[in-house]
Design brief:
With 436 residues, this protein is of the alpha/beta class. The chain has two domains: 23-359, Alkaline Phosphatase, subunit A; 364-421, no CATH class. Helices cover 28% and strands 20% of the residues. It contains twelve helices and 16 strands. The protein has helices spanning 3-16, 23-28, 57-65, 78-87, 91-94, 108-114, 184-198, 231-255, 294-297, 324-331, 346-350, 409-421; strands at residues 32-38, 67-73, 118-124, 151-155, 168-171, 174-177, 204-209, 262-268, 277-280, 283-286, 298-304, 313-320, 360-364, 374-378, 382-385, 390-392. The chain is globular and about 60 Å long. It starts with a helix and ends in a 15-residue tail after the last helix.
Length: 436
């Protein structure tokens, strides 16, 4: 072989191995994301957070092999949290109505689709304004495909129906009524597994807003009794089944050899249902769904990425629901010029230096057509509402005794939080505005 041929072959080899020679090759080398969000599941329900009441062995294993967070806070209710997570923006900027995601908002699915990722969403949607809602909201939101998701398997898009046994699921644009022996969470999980398995060599983004563990509290396929009406017992079974489905996804990623190239995150969307009580250590915690105290906003969060996240890490930094979008984008090196309220915590996952969140801002107006907004700002210890109520959460987690005259450290925190709160939006900028 001549030296000239060797030179050409050498150049060709360099070109083929360059990360920019082919967009498809470059994309395939990017990390995958699996973002899982449980429905109505507070911090107190996880074994990795100290619960002995609920069985979560798969998530406990993820926490032991990854990073668990002690200060993740959501909006107090599902739709507000979902809108915040999917857009990276405060509810003060784009929350229009319950069950509605304004269709002019750029979503996490759109970011990933535009970056060349395969995109999938399965589980619960409730962002379009299904047929059982008031006519003023019906169909005013966003369909999953409009939000950037190519593959979809969801409960409650344009119709409601059952979510557990004999579910009505919206699969790739078509409503399908499943039989009495079919279980909604299993249908959604099976769909995700098939999606991942179809083209594992191509980078993917999977968003799994789970159907579990929302009411009604009924037995699961793994329950000992299929006729139990004990809400507390059935909820425990639902937590266990939720954990079981997550184990199936994690195992699929491992079996396909994708674990070291896949970031898996699990979070709750708001506090546990108020009808339930849970034991955590020597405390009995009543669910706080819909409330702005810690029982309503404090949610579990665990992140797993072998080879990137050190095993057994415990993170006490503040994490807000708006932070997931910029974190996922940063993990996959997807650039954006959009101004977001969220702050990436990727550097915390990878053990690098970066900007940590100093406060969380919550604007909460679940039914703008009939409720008044409340809003607050908090750090890891203190919390200030817009009406000047001020709490020390270390001593008063459920906010029973506001501090009337803060002093010392409390006064310093009050002044800092007050100044910051004055700079934030305190009215719904898109209240009841629905672009055509």
């Amino acid at each position: 072989m001549t030296s000239k041929c060797l030179f050409v072959i050498s150049l060709l080899s360099i070109w083929l191995n360059s990360p920019c020679w082919s967009a498809d090759t470059n994309i395939a080398q990017r990390p995958n994301i699996v973002l899982i969000m449980a429905d109505d599941l507070g911090y107190e329900c996880m074994g990795f957070n100290g619960s002995k009441q609920y069985k979560t062995p798969n998530l406990d294993q993820l926490a032991s092999r990854g990073m668990r967070f002690t200060q993740c806070h959501a909006q107090p209710l599902c739709t507000p949290s979902r809108v915040k997570l999917m857009t990276g923006l405060s509810n003060a900027r784009n929350y229009s109505a319950f069950s509605v995601l304004p269709r002019d908002q750029k979503t996490i699915g759109q970011y990933f689709k535009q970056a060349g990722y395969r995109t999938c969403v399965a589980g619960k949607w409730q962002l379009y304004g299904a047929e059982h809602y008031s006519p003023q909201f019906r169909g005013k939101g966003t369909l999953p495909e409009q939000a950037g998701f190519e593959s979809t398997c969801l409960w409650q898009v344009d119709k409601s129906g059952e979510r557990f046994f004999a579910p009505l699921m919206h699969v790739d644009g078509e409503n399908i009524q499943f039989g009495d022996d079919q279980y909604g969470p299993q249908v959604a999980t099976d769909y995700i597994l098939e999606f991942i398995e179809q083209k594992p060599e191509e980078a993917f983004f999977v968003y799994y807003p789970m159907i579990l563990t929302h009411s009604p509290f009924v037995p699961t396929p793994l329950s000992k009794s299929r006729s139990s009406r004990d809400k507390q017992s059935n909820f425990a079974d639902m937590v266990a089944y939720m954990d079981f489905t997550i184990g199936r996804i994690v195992n699929k990623v491992k079996d396909l050899g994708l674990a070291e190239n896949t970031l898996i995150m699990f979070v709750g969307d708001n506090g546990t249902h108020t009808a339930l009580e849970s034991e955590l250590g020597d405390q009995i915690i009543r669910g706080g769904k819909g409330k702005t105290n810690d029982a309503g906003t404090h949610v579990p969060l665990v992140a797993y990425w072998p080879g990137v996240i050190k095993p057994g890490e415990v993170n006490d930094n503040l994490i807000d629901m708006s932070d997931f979008l910029p974190t996922c984008l940063a993990a996959c090196d997807i650039q954006t010029t959009s101004k977001l309220d969220g702050l990436s915590f990727l550097h915390q996952l990878t053990g690098k230096s970066g900007k940590d969140r100093e406060w969380i801002y919550c604007y909460y107006n679940p039914r703008p057509e009939r409720t008044q907004a409340s809003y607050f700002i908090r750090d890891t210890r203190y919390k200030l509402y817009g009406d000047e109520r001020f709490y020390d959460l270390k001593l008063d987690r459920l906010e029973t005794s506001p501090i009337s005259s803060p002093k010392g450290t409390a006064l310093k925190a009050f002044n800092t939080l007050r100044t910051t709160l004055d700079s934030l939006p305190t009215s719904g900028e898109k209240l009841l505005q629905f672009p055509e």
